[in-house]
């Protein structure tokens, strides 16, 4: 049996193991240790047999990379990417991390990032779509005027204003109403430009570009909504917290008393950076969850504070999470297709 035949069999075995891990991740939100151990034993052994020390270097380099990326990645995900590295160490690498593994991490993370945005759109589309239409009318009208009068850097200035407007409309109700009303002018805007300057309308494919503007603004709106705390979330009693739950709340503890504050993605990220640098202000402890979620010791502390009446709420806000391993399976299949069918990696 040739080396490539062995590699193909190992890829198939890993696919089966990933399917099992996906099922368990969906069912229990945990990746079974036995699956990780089997992948590790098989892939390190075969990787070393086929590729020698390159497989070992790839294993440790991927482990270091995943630990660095661990701010937004669970422990099971780190282990999966790391155990797959030895059997993909056949080609180009970046700092000994195989290119297919980097691609696998990127595809998996990219797909999983879409799900919160989709849920935000489902929840807030009645606000996002009219605002995107209204701002597209506003942007298109001013862009035409700037084009007629040859004002430099017009598009850059307009896009900056439009992005700021999305943020303002989320925070200021009266401004949001004004932008919403502009959306009703969409047909008037398109027809008006066509009548006033037919050549401009046709040469610039205005109808197509208007649709593109709206789509771009919807995507920008989704990101801004996520950054300002619009993630899909649920309330959960403190007594029912489990290890791995990801809080949207930030909990500040001082002198045995806890203060709870809701925080959007941007604020949590800033606090996370501050805490990495050892900055926690006057507080004895700040509980802020990352990709690994709540730890058992933090849960015990919160439940103790709750029993003693030293925390002001009965429930905490959790961010809705999604099983990550199924997206790894999709990325794994894409990488294998690129390798076997297209031969590009």
Overall body shape: flat
Structural domain tally: 3
| CATH topology annotation of the largest domain | Four Helix Bundle (Hemerythrin (Met), subunit A)
CATH top level of the largest domain is: Mainly Alpha
Q: What CATH architecture of the largest domain would you give?
A: Up-down Bundle
Strand count, sense and closure of the main sheet? 3 strands, antiparallel
Q: Percent range for helical residues?
A: 55-70%
Distance between the termini: 23 Å
In DSSP terms (H or I, runs of 4 or more residues), the helix count works out at 13
Question: How many DSSP-defined strands?
Answer: 7
In which order are the strands of the major sheet placed?
Answer: 5-4-6
SSE ordering = HHHHEEHHHHHHEEEHEHEH
Radius of gyration: 25 Å
Task: List low-pLDDT spans.
Answer: none
Kindly report the oligomeric state of this protein.
Answer: single chain
Mean pLDDT, to the nearest integer, reads 83
Percent of residues in beta strands: 5-15%
Structural class, judged by helices and strands? mainly alpha
List the helices and strands and how they pair.
Layout: H1 3-28, H2 33-51, H3 53-68, H4 75-84, E1 93-94, E2 97-98, H5 99-148, H6 154-171, H7 173-182, H8 186-196, H9 198-203, H10 206-227, E3 233-237, E4 249-254, E5 257-262, H11 265-276, E6 285-287, H12 296-307, E7 315-319, H13 325-342
Antiparallel strand pairs: 1-2, 3-7, 4-5, 4-6
Helix pairs in contact: 1-2, 1-13, 2-3, 2-4, 3-4, 5-6, 5-7, 5-8, 5-10, 5-13, 6-7, 6-10
EC number: 3.4.23.52
Transmembrane segments: 6-24, 31-50, 56-76, 97-118, 124-146, 153-172, 208-227, 324-342
GO molecular function, one term: aspartic-type endopeptidase activity
């Amino acid at each position: 049996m040739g080396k490539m035949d062995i590699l193909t069999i190992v890829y198939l075995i890993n696919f089966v193991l990933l399917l099992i891990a996906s099922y368990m991740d969906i069912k229990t939100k945990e990746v079974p240790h036995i699956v990780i151990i089997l992948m590790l034993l098989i892939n390190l052994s075969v990787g070393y047999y086929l590729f020698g020390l390159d497989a070992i270097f790839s294993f440790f380099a991927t482990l270091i990379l995943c630990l660095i990326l661990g701010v937004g990645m669970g422990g099971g995900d780190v282990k999966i990417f790391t155990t797959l590295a030895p059997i993909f160490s056949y080609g180009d690498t970046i700092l000994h991390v195989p290119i297919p593994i980097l691609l696998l991490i990127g595809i998996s993370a990219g797909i999983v990032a879409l799900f919160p945005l989709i849920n935000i759109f489902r929840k807030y589309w009645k606000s996002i779509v009219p605002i995107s239409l209204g701002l597209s009318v506003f942007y298109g009208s001013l862009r035409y005027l700037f084009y007629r009068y040859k004002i430099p850097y017009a598009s850059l200035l307009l896009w900056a204003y439009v992005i700021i407007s999305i943020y303002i409309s989320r925070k200021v109700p009266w401004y949001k109403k004004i932008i919403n009303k502009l959306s009703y002018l969409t047909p008037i805007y398109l027809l008006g430009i066509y009548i006033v300057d037919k050549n401009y309308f046709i040469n610039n494919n205005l109808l197509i570009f208007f649709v593109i503007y709206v789509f771009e603004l919807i995507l920008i709106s989704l990101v801004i909504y996520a950054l300002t705390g619009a993630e899909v979330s649920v309330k959960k009693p403190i007594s029912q917290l489990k290890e791995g739950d990801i809080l949207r709340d930030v909990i500040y503890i001082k002198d045995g008393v806890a203060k709870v504050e809701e925080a959007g993605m941007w604020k949590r990220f800033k606090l996370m950076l501050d805490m990495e640098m050892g900055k926690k202000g006057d507080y004895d402890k700040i509980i802020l969850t990352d990709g690994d979620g709540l730890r058992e010791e933090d849960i015990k502390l919160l439940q103790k504070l709750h029993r003693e009446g030293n925390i002001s709420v009965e429930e905490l806000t959790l961010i809705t999470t999604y099983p990550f391993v199924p997206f790894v399976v999709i990325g794994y299949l894409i990488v294998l297709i690129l390798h076997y069918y297209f031969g590009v990696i």
